[in-house]
């Protein structure tokens, strides 16, 4: 599904150039749950931004389902992002004074889904994350763990092929973090959604089937997690 071929990303020029990614080869198959790890400045966030079509490589190729994303226009990349990718952020990124249901409906509005259909899909997504009875509550009335569940519901409402989760438990206590990770693992297992998660927490990475570690812009290790069978299919 996702393939990097010698992907490099350089910020700046000359002596001030920063090689965020340095010739990275990476394949993520359909249905995998991959944790991307590494210290600050290792390249993991740049990798995630390129996968999410929020940034483009300086050189090399990023292919999504065989399509060279670098050959797409800005508008085409936006469509790929809108139609195939769901995002979950550390800071939830919810509209605080807007209800949970309305927050989940937002990406469906951008996709032009009719009101009744998007309402039903948003409600279904909330039920999938265990918040079917919280649709009328504003984000500010929900706990941190509940807000992250709403964010995950928003990500899955548009039926994405991939969920990109950037430090999804970074603002949560250990109990809520466990709940969120179990939810992501269940969505991966039951719905077959590919999950790519950036985390600096080794105990959270254990929920993934595979762990890819970055250091100095390169992949330093890539291994299946103990107790997890590798996912098949590209």
From TrEMBL:
SMART domains reported in the protein's UniProt record: AAA (SM00382)
Residues annotated as domain ABC transporter: 2-234
Protein name: ATP-binding cassette domain-containing protein
Gene Ontology MF term list: ATP binding; ATP hydrolysis activity; transmembrane transporter activity
InterPro entries xrefs: AAA+_ATPase, ABC_transporter-like_ATP-bd, ABC_transporter-like_CS, ABC_transpr_LolD-like, MacB-like_ATP-bd, P-loop_NTPase
Pfam families referenced in this protein's UniProt entry, alphabetically: ABC_tran
PROSITE patterns tied to this protein: ABC_TRANSPORTER_1 (PS00211), ABC_TRANSPORTER_2 (PS50893)
SUPFAM superfamilies according to UniProt: P-loop containing nucleoside triphosphate hydrolases (SSF52540)
Lineage: Bacteria, Pseudomonadati, Pseudomonadota, Alphaproteobacteria, Hyphomicrobiales
GO CC term (a single one): membrane protein complex
Family: Belongs to the ABC transporter superfamily. Macrolide exporter (TC 3.A.1.122) family.
Record bears the keyword Transferase: no
Keyword line: ATP-binding, Cell inner membrane, Cell membrane, Membrane, Nucleotide-binding, Translocase, Transport
